[in-house]
Amino acid sequence: MDPLTQAAIGARAHAHAPYSNFHVGAALETDDGRIFTGCNVESASYGLTMCAERVAAFHAVSQGARIFKRIAVATGVAKPAPPCGACRQVIWDLCGDIDVILVSANGTTETFRLSQLLPRPFDDHSMA
Ligand code: THU
Predict the structure, then answer these.
(1) Which of 12, 21, 28, 49 to mutate for ligand 1's pocket (most ligand atoms within 8 Å of CB)?
(2) pLDDT (tens digit, 9 = 90+) per residue, 92-117?
(3) Could you give the 3-state DSSP secondary structure of residue 111?
(4) Chain segment 45-90, per-residue pLDDT in tens
(5) Which atom of ligand 1 lies closest to the CA of 50?
(6) What is 3-121's CATH topology?
(7) pTM of the entire predicted model
(8) CB 108 within 8 Å of CB 72
(9) Rounded distance, CA 49 to CA 59, Å?
(10) Domain boundaries, the chain
C-alpha cells in the first residue's frame, strides 16, 4: 500500500470524535518526501471541532514544511468522503493544486486534483 495512504489510515486511529463518531485521518506529503499526519479533534462546543485535513496541514506548516505534493484522507465509510469546503480552501491556501487521495474503509482509493474539488478558488489573485 502507498505509504501516504497507510499514514492516513494510521492517523485515523487517533481521531477524537465522541460526538459524531466519524473518525478521519489525513496525511500530507512534502516535496522532499516527508509525511505529516492529522486526525479530527472534536469539541463539546461543536463549532470548535477541527478536521483531520486542517490538523495535518497546520502540523506540517508548524514544522516548517512549505511545499506539498499530495494529501490522503481516510474515513471508515465505503464511499470515499471528500474534504469539506473549509478544508478545500485551506489546502488550496497552503498547498495549491495538489493531488487529493480519498481512502475508503477497505483501503481502496480515488484520486482527484484539488482544482477538480474546488474550481474557481478564492486566493490572492482574486483580490488583485
Ligand atoms: N471531518 C473531517 O475531519 N474532515 C472533513 O473533511 C469532513 C469532516 C470531521 C469533522 C467532524 O469531527 C466529523 O468529521 C463529522 O463532521
Answers:
(1) 49
(2) 999 999 999 999 999 999 999 999 99
(3) strand
(4) 999 999 999 999 999 999 999 999 999 999 999 999 999 999 999 9
(5) 10
(6) Cytidine Deaminase; domain 2 (3.40.140)
(7) 0.97
(8) no
(9) 16
(10) 3-121
